[in-house]
Amino acid sequence: MPKKTFSVASLIVAACLLLSAVPADAVCPVPQLRANGEFFKRDVVFTGTVISVRYDERDVGGWFYRLRVQKVFRGPVRAEFTVFTENSSGRFPLENGQSYLLFASRDHGRLEIDNCTNSSPLAKATESIQMIENIARGHLSGEIEGWLVGETSGIDVSGVRVICRGDSATYSDVTDKDGWFHFLAPAGDYHVDFTSKENYLNRADIFWYDAHNFTLHVGETAALQLVSTRHLAR
Length: 234
Description:
Layout: H1 8-20, H2 35-38, E1 44-56, E2 62-74, E3 80-86, E4 99-107, E5 110-112, E6 120-121, H3 126-137, E7 142-150, E8 161-166, E9 170-174, E10 180-185, E11 188-194, E12 199-201, E13 214-216, E14 221-228
Parallel strand pairs: 3-5, 7-14
Antiparallel strand pairs: 1-2, 1-4, 2-3, 4-5, 4-6, 7-10, 8-9, 8-11, 11-13, 12-14
C-alpha cells in the first residue's frame, strides 16, 4: 500500500478549519430576564418551525436557521424569518422540523439568537407566551425586581432598602435574606437610590438595564443587579 503524504498547505488548511470549529466565549448580561422583560430588549419575538439549517464558516462561524412563522409578537409580520447563532459558548442550537419561541436581536443586518434568553422549544414556552400575551392586553402594571450581591463572599445582603425614584413617585422594598427585592410600579422612567452609602450600583458587568436610568413599560418586569460592600456576616 502506498504511503500517504500531506503537503504543508493541506496541513495549514486543516489547522485553520480545526481552529474555526473551536467555540468562542460569550458573555450574558446579568441578571437573567423574565420573558416579559426580554420582550422589550429584543427586536423580533415570534414562534416558528425550522425548515432548513445551514452552517457558514465566515467570521466566527455559525448556523443559519430558516423558520416558517406561526405568530409574531414583536417586530415585522412575515411568513418566514432566518436567524443566526454563532459558533460560541452562547450558541442557541435549533433542530430541523422543531418549533420554537425565539427572542432575536438585529445585528450586522441579520437576526441573531443566543442562549442568554427565554427562547425555548415551543412545548416548554407556555409560561413565557402567557407573559407576552399579558403585555398585549395592556392592563398590567410594571414590576421592578433584582438582587443585591456582595462584593465579596460572606457579605450580609439582607435588610437593605432599595429605592426607585420615578417622575411622579418613589417606590421601595427591603431585601430579603438572599438580597432579593421586588415591587410593582407604573410605566415610566426610574433610577435606583440607596439610604446607605455601603451599597452602590454596579457598572463592572454587562446589564440589560442601567440602574442609573431605565424605562419601565406596561407589563414589563425589569431585572436589576446591585452591589453591597457591607460588613461580613457573622
